[in-house]
Request: fold
Amino acid sequence: MIARRPGAGFTIITNQEIYPDHYLMELRREGAGFDASPGQFVNVLAAGGVTDPLLRVPLGIHRIRKNGIALFYKVVGKATGILSRKRKGDPLDILGPLGRGFYPETGEKEEKKINVLVAGGHGAAPLYALAQREREKGKEVAVFLGASTKKHIVLSREFRQLGCRVKTATEDGSAGRKGYVTCLLEDLLKQKNGEFAVYSCGPTPMLARLAELAAEKGIRARVSVDTYMACGTGVCRGCAIMTREGYKLSCTDGPVFYSDEIVWEEKLKGCGE
Ligand SMILES: Cc1cc2nc3c(=O)[nH]c(=O)nc-3n(C[C@H](O)[C@H](O)[C@H](O)COP(=O)(O)OP(=O)(O)OC[C@H]3O[C@@H](n4cnc5c(N)ncnc54)[C@H](O)[C@@H]3O)c2cc1C
Reply:
């Protein structure tokens, strides 16, 4: 008998474009629960029954519900294009939950820290699940959302509805602070004292700059890396990244790492540079 994969067998409840080129897909799984933690991801088979595209699409778990999950994805190519055309009632083959999330396995973090979530573009997707969990615990959450321009800022409404304090940054200055989203963190760390728990997801140069800022303040941020990956389960070893302890796999050792674990290469400039 073939064992059923842990996450397979979801049904699409909604699949709507809620921001330009960005879709919210709600999925239900009948019967068994889906025990996911914020920051974990799923590997989705976009093309049911055919081999193009061959690989699954890794997507962060955006919302965690009792009998399902939601995904929030940007349409960038073939697989995400196929996903965007799926309809209510369609089945979806999902592998997961996979990887290690934002909460370290040693337990959830200390209570007194101020949560700061820093997102670049669709990096906001998995951070939402974390914000939701922290708000349920009654914790304050500040969210910094960054994009190149105003129309690419996503999920600001949804984070506000959760009761998070939201600030935005755009590279062209069309919304919020002009500059990179890391500038908002730079401003905060300069202006305010306190113990911050920093979480982030976005492009690698952004995470690298955030890691630098965190290190200056002695903060171990938790960052979710967006490395290209194939199997998502550690078998193909295609998503290795360099850490201070040698190569680690983004899919099984991550995608969330401590910011000081990774050997960063290209990074964004600081605000005054
Ligand atoms: C752990 C993890 C979680 C992710 N979570 C989300 C999420 O929640 N929402 C979301 O919108 N996207 C997420 N992504 C990125 C998503 O997997 C890719 O955008 C998707 O695989 C693209 O598939 P495609 O066939 O549509 O496009 P492709 O044809 O494969 O690629 C189209 C374009 O996107 C670029 N691209 C593809 N994959 C990546 C990647 N991993 N990093 C950077 N650029 C890439 C390609 O270079 C190309 O320019 C995540 C990636 C990882 C590794």
Remarks:
- The radius of gyration is 18 Å.
- Helices lie at 78-84, 124-136, 156-161, 181-191, 204-216.
- The mean pLDDT is 90.
